[in-house]
Amino acid sequence: MIGKKVLKELAQAVGREKVFAESEYLLSYSYDATGLEYLPDAVVFAENEEDVAAVIAVCRSHGLPLVPRGAGVGYTGGALAVSGGVVLVFTRMNRILSLDRENFLAVVEPGVVTSDLQEAAEKAGLFYPPDPASLKTSTIGGNVAENAGGPRCFKYGVTGNYVLGLEAFLMNGEKVRLGAETIKNVAGYDLKSLLVGSEGTLAVVTRVTVRLLPLPPCRLLFRVDFPALEDGARFVQRVIQAHVQPAVLEFMDRSSLQAVYSYQGLALDDRLRAAVLVEVDGSPAEVAEREALLKKQLDAARPLHWQRAETFAEQEALWATRRNISPAIAKLKPKKINEDIVVPAGRIPEMVGFIDGLAAEYGLCIVLFGHFGDGNIHTNLMVDPDDAGEMSRAEVVLDKIFRRVVEFGGTISGEHGIGLSKKPFMHYQFSPVELELFRRIKKVFDPDNLLNPGKMF
Amino acid sequence: MIGKKVLKELAQAVGREKVFAESEYLLSYSYDATGLEYLPDAVVFAENEEDVAAVIAVCRSHGLPLVPRGAGVGYTGGALAVSGGVVLVFTRMNRILSLDRENFLAVVEPGVVTSDLQEAAEKAGLFYPPDPASLKTSTIGGNVAENAGGPRCFKYGVTGNYVLGLEAFLMNGEKVRLGAETIKNVAGYDLKSLLVGSEGTLAVVTRVTVRLLPLPPCRLLFRVDFPALEDGARFVQRVIQAHVQPAVLEFMDRSSLQAVYSYQGLALDDRLRAAVLVEVDGSPAEVAEREALLKKQLDAARPLHWQRAETFAEQEALWATRRNISPAIAKLKPKKINEDIVVPAGRIPEMVGFIDGLAAEYGLCIVLFGHFGDGNIHTNLMVDPDDAGEMSRAEVVLDKIFRRVVEFGGTISGEHGIGLSKKPFMHYQFSPVELELFRRIKKVFDPDNLLNPGKMF
Q1: What percent of chain A has pLDDT over 70?
Q2: What's the distance, CA A259 to chain centroid?
């Protein structure tokens, strides 16, 4: 608990109307998509970089933790104030400062909602590709902190591939400008890339310069249904091998489909075991070429059924199934253990088969879906926290999954980051030497461990 | 000078046949493309990671500098042993360990020559895009150290965009594995990206995993000649604005062309002031579309003349002019001050005009060429070191150029890195706070400052 004196200092520093310590505010900013809750001592809404600098100064002088927060929709507790302190909310710093058609750049404040940037870019004939599932609420600042991905990242890369420059404040109060407004930049250490994905533990980002692309004029979406899980996984691989280069290659297993269909009140074909969404984009001629390549693979794969969606409305209807998976499966069991492992794409059929085998062997409900094009398998263990036996079986299965992922040259997190939830798993991927390097890097930026403490390692 | 005892230790550690201290060896590994010379005390040819670990151990125990070196073709002195010590040469660690068509990956030792990797990838129908001008001699290890670019990086990105994973040794002798074999990976701080471009000052890389793309089946090259410098610069911009998305957009000014034509013994059209190379690539239909878009811009731009090269031989003939610029201009004056500034592409006409104006105002020969698509302007001040007046005018001009570059949101180095040559210019781009961060990061990895000391800051 912080005293009235500190609250008064905060109010003096940024203005009374931006500082809240009432319990309803503390509660509103105490949780994220993990369901975990940690009450902060105060919530401050930054409106400009002066506010950020002022809050840092107060936190430093009182040794108070500072937790930057965007929309709070993260899956690993990255924005939770586990040691109390001040939650610094960026949703009011939501201006697109410039959208430069000549240089294919946008400069934005960290609180800009991802889809707002995408829409502004589209209006200018430009394209901001990263598309995390939460894009209608998530902020660019949060996306930078987690190096957010999404379906399109298979073709277009992740958030970090679009961040050219950052402005940020260090916990010593100094402002730094990292990167540049150019694609090429090899002067000095690449601290911009170090900050991307650092989960708000190194510096407080106040401005982001992102690269934009020309908007692909055409887009076609296909849904392909298979009678076996492995058939779907193999189809994904064949599409990659055939150099179709789709923008999106999404996979849904039987459990995901079952949950969504029941959520939507629809009947599901008994034979259906997996569905794949394939989106191709580009100019009309490119899209036609990619479609022809894809159709060869469709013929070879002998799916149960496939659909082609050309109009926006048709495409949205197909996407609805995919987008509803998360809310739909949440109804299957009281708790979802939500992992976002990645393996090299060629390992997907093996990995999917392995997980499916474990589910059967240990009697667990495991729902698989995700961005199979880039090997990103969202692996959801649906459990009941009151069932001790189930919980301990889940632990054994997770251990086996993480070991296999690392053996396959993969990673324990492709999108969600480490935060709180995945801290216990870091040792699967990193040696004590590597973890020590992380700690020492953290110390360079934040020697007193005030900035988003308790996360990642 | 190191004593016989240390040399003996080195020989015992890695084998006598890999350690050299004879003056002809020391001389051969004392210089790079800067023309600067610093004699090391010993040269060791690593053949495997055990050699690397052993040399690190000897250097550490004697407090000896260790300088990793690839082909030694860098432009900023990155591979020079400015404080003596051991130069650790990687040219014998030149195996492509795997080339994985299923996962679009290659795993290579750092001594692999860039073009060898490109050719091996092409044979498998795959593509490793980064193409620094020195690609026929430069090594992947050197490319990683400098985050090398090249003409194609306009469309395809730089070396760092293709490095998925690194194995490296720290100066404390510990081995680390950074990154993964996947495109998405958000576990822990992105130390892989921090190492890329760190000029061999943080760790000694022993293995590199790179991402490959499907090989674009078609390629078309155009050369377009203009009667004025600004016409050429504006054409580059129009091609970008029209979303032609060429793979390459190279620019050559009158002085570069004059030097190359005289080097090749050819006559040059009197009216010619600038030439632009445009390469479009992709599938046949994509290339046809891009060609149509380009032709609209050709019609609008009213060039003096243009050529279209379809066959490999025709294309190589056009490329020869561009590739001969560096050797050709070296004959213009005794010394070339070789800068590789970058500005946002929309600023190119302004920047080129500014430099041209300075050349006239200060009576200097400044040769401009480069990768204008990504704003990377190779700016060569051709000077005579014995002409004190010219040298001091060059200094004034450089100061003005760097200031303008930074004002424009650009960077002082797009490809060559900082090394020794650009250390004096770091303050243009970085504040004392940022430079101090670099020093503290260096200390985390190399507290005794033994690894490639004296570089960058």
Answers
A1: 100
A2: 22
